[in-house]
What we know:
By secondary structure, this protein is of the alpha/beta class. Helix content is about 25%, strand content about 30%. It has a domain at about 5-85: Beta Polymerase, domain 2 (2-Layer Sandwich).
Amino acid sequence: MSAEEVAGEMKKKFPEADVRIPRASRLTASVKKEVLLDVCSFLKDAGFDHLSSIAGVDRAENFEVAYFLWSYEKKILVTLKTAVQKENPRIQSVIKIWEGANWHEREAYDMFGIVFEGHPDLRRLLMPEDFVGHPLRKDFKLPEVE
């Protein structure tokens, strides 16, 4: 199955998704967080068996969570993006779909404060447990040194 075929199937199943093919064997899709788990399950069933990374991005109006998925069989990389509101940054965990999401979700939680609902052990990964704030947020202020 080519990137074009995956995109076509995805558009049929999720017509509200913004699906693009920026270059051969590369697909990007933006979806609403309410359908994220359904889209992830679809992609896993379509052969995207490797979640290589999850990245948080602080946009002006919201946070964006980007999932980077690889299919060894198809040799296609999918970047799946969804927006999360800044006031209450919560999204469903994908750990039941890809177990490798564990540390990626913990890192996004630690650095941005994005809560991955359903994560079995959501706690800081890089910063000390008593650290105040989330250092990759644009509104994070470095503490004063005395």
